[in-house]
Amino acid sequence: MILDGAREVDRIELSGDRDVVRARRRIADRMDALGARALRKTRFVTAVSEVARNAVVHGGGGVMTVYAFKSARIGIECRDRGPGIASIEQALSDGFSTTGSMGHGLGGAKRLSDAFEIDSRPGGGTVVRMLGSL
Amino acid sequence: MSSAAAIYPVEGVLLVSIRDDITDTDIVDLQDALSERIADESANGVVLDISGLEIVDTFVGRVLAQLTSIARLLDAETFVVGMRPAVAMTLVELGMYLPENRTALSLTHALAKMRQMRDE
Ligand SMILES: Nc1ncnc2c1ncn2[C@@H]1O[C@H](COP(=O)(O)OP(=O)(O)O)[C@@H](O)[C@H]1O
Ligand SMILES: [Mg+2]
To answer: Which Gene3D superfamilies does the entry link to (chain B) (predicted)?
Structure first.
């Protein structure tokens, strides 16, 4: 698991679109405090925005946990108890959406993070973990 | 629409400034409000100032592209100004090229380009 050895430092409830804004603000502020470079922060916070929105829109709400490392990295875990994803491969491909939106979010988050893990199965909710460097 | 976005008329152009804490709901409301105002005020152009946005994700990117298409149908040209370099690089990585959007470095540049287009 990519969050092994990390310490939990924050937890953000995700139930509506205001919480998506709150999640990206809290993670951007933390990355600023840790001295992250502008591009690295923008990339990771954009990835956070995508997975947080997915938890709200597709997962019916969830929780994002933020992790700190001893090294120059930050991690998040986004967990929901929604319907899960039937085909992760399909969900990751650009243009695939079950709601008629862009379908670039999940694959985009994977490209924008330094490490990406997803656990999901139909009926079993979805967990996404990501790492970003500072 | 909440205070997360504001629309100001300047020289026949609607200047829209978008704040970083804008929610998905707010930006969809902005799309409605702006479409109405372009028609009501017979605006020649729209300038979307996104210098306040630290990130533009796929949702906001899609709305920016749609705003441009709507404005064009209403005979108004749209310029996006103030996109941060990190935002541009991230949008490309997301596969969001926003081909419909014209960009300008600043509001002054956008207004000058629009005047030029009108004079041609
Ligand atoms: N947390 C989630 N729970 C259930 N399904 C999800 C979740 N995240 C993503 N998906 C599925 O993966 C698809 C692709 O996601 P994404 O690339 O973010 O595109 P979009 O959100 O625009 O549909 C979604 O349409 C949805 O079917
Ligand atoms: Mg999405």
So the answer is: STAS domain
